[in-house]
Amino acid sequence: MLDISRSLYYAFKQDRPSLRSQQDLALRARIVAINTAHRWAPGAVKMWHLLKAEGIQCGKHRVIRLRKLEGIQTTRMKRFRVMQAKERVQPPAPDLVKRAFQVDAPNKVWVGDITSLRTREGWVHLAIVLDLFARRVVGWAMNSTQAATLPMAALSMALAQRQPRAGLIFHSDQGTVYGCNDYRELLQKHGVLASMSRKGNCHDNAVAESFFSNLKNEVMHDHLFACREEARAVVNDYIEMYYNRSRLHQTLGYQTPVQVEAQFRVLN
After folding, report:
1. Helices and strands: H and E segment counts in the chain
2. What is the DSSP annotation of 154-190?
3. Which of 71, 87, 100, 129 could pair covalently with 180 via S-S, beta carbons 3.0-4.6 A apart?
4. Is 187 a domain residue?
5. Which residues contact 178 (CB under 8 A, 6 or more apart)?
6. CB-based contact 135:255 (threshold 8 Å)
7. CA 173/CA 187 separation, integer angstroms
């Protein structure tokens, strides 16, 4: 037996990293690697699911603690109201959705909304169309103006890509661009039923609102676009490469929209 003092033994034992500490260091390294690999940092719960997908077993609270040690945080941005230009509008359409946001197949219910993104060059406006079934963005458009041509371009993109059958419901708020004659006529031309939230009730269109919240928190909380063209390029990457194909969605059982639609096609 080695002849060492009791105090020296305990000092050595205390300085020696425990197995738990070593595991934490390895886990922190993996968390940093995942965060770096994702252009838009996943939150703690999504990070936990990504680790589980790699076969790494750990608790959610441990992931939260280690993310904080690495200085990885999710920032929430304040919301602001989008002012829309006045246009001749038809009476509001009835609310056909009534907050029933869970849909059993693609191309049954789409939702749409508009938001504004700030750049050093001025504001740029984004309109989206999102399929409720898999929460996939199926159409989007950006412009420096908020005329009805903006959401019409997003809807036209969705119609061209998805080619839905007649009877599809399109749900939006009561913004003037969604109630104007040109927009309503485009819906009618393709057999799409108009549906609108109650006046001033953002919860009636919560899924579209949630998309914009995620976009701004994950892309813009620490970044101001230099120009509208940069904003357009980043939004394109966010929607087409990240949100639809890589981002895990809690409402989808931590799968991506593309995965959920692929599974539906296999089963149907």
Report:
1. 10, 5
2. HHHHHHHHH-PPTT-EEEE---HHHHBHHHHHHHHHT
3. 87
4. yes
5. 112, 151, 172, 194, 196
6. no
7. 15
Task: Say if 253 falls within a structural domain.
Answer: yes
Per-residue pLDDT reduced to its tens digit, 172-188: 999 999 999 999 999 99
Sign of the Cα pseudo-torsion (145, 146, 149, 152, in order): positive
Residue 23 lies in a domain: yes
For residue 259, give the H/E element and its range. helix 257-267
Q: What is the pTM of this model?
A: 0.72
Cβ neighbours of residue 3 closer than 8 Å, sequence gap 6 or more: none
| 113-154 per-position pLDDT tens digit | 999 999 999 999 999 999 999 999 999 999 999 899 999 999
Indicate whether 139 and 234 sit together in one domain: yes
**Same domain flag for 56 and 142:** no
How many domains does the chain fold into?
2
Q: For 113-125, give one letter per residue: b (16+ CB within 10 A) or e.
A: bbbebebeeeebb
Q: Are 72 and 40 in contact (CB under 8 A)?
A: no
CB 90 within 8 A of CB 199: no
Amino acid at 231: A
Q: What is the CATH number of the domain that holds 178?
A: 3.30.420.10
Domain that holds residue 52: 6-69
Beta carbons within 10 angstroms of residue 97's beta carbon = 20
- Distance between CA 137 and CA 150 in Å, rounded? 16
Question: Which amino acid appears at position 21 of this protein?
Answer: S
Strands 122-131, 169-172: pairing is unpaired
Last residue of a domain, one of 16, 38, 69: 69
Structure tokens at 100: 């029933």
